[in-house]
Amino acid sequence: MNGRTLWVKEEILERVSSIVGYFNNTYSPNDQVLFAPVLQGAIPFFSDIAKGVTFDPFIEYIGISSYKGEQQKEFNLYRMIDTKYISGKIVWLFDDIADSGNTLNYLSKLLYQRGAQDVKTCVLIKKQHCKCNIDQFGFEMGDGWLWGYGMDSPNGKGRSLNNIYCKL
Fold this sequence. Notes:
Blueprint: E1 3-7, H1 9-26, E2 33-39, H2 43-52, E3 58-59, E4 62-68, E5 71-79, H3 83-86, E6 90-98, H4 102-113, E7 118-127, E8 136-141, E9 146-147, E10 164-167
Parallel strand pairs: 2-3, 2-4, 2-6, 6-7, 7-8
Antiparallel strand pairs: 1-10, 4-5, 9-10
């Protein structure tokens, strides 16, 4: 797939390090924090964050899909966290990209309904037209289909690449 490089591994890891610094300065080992990465795209981003935090949050994964190729479709929630792990906790949702923000808004409402004390969001890339409050993010950009560092191209490949690319 033809594309241009937007961010290289070193730039990505520098932004991730800044986000890790925020978490380490905000939370201590006694805080009731649940990290909830969204499968599948958030895994490389979340993994780098989890390796850097100096406290031990609860970690549970959420599985949801809302894209088929390049088109957004209805939500398919295929893995949700049990209420006993959510109740009374500060929940951080991690995702690779906040495009419209619809998925994060949907998940935030579900987590509040299941008893979360607070729900916050952390994404690697925030699109400028996103309609969701994003508490922490690495990069901001306009339109464009991205792949690499966990995000897949429209043909389903590219997740294992270290850099982030944009479709030409």
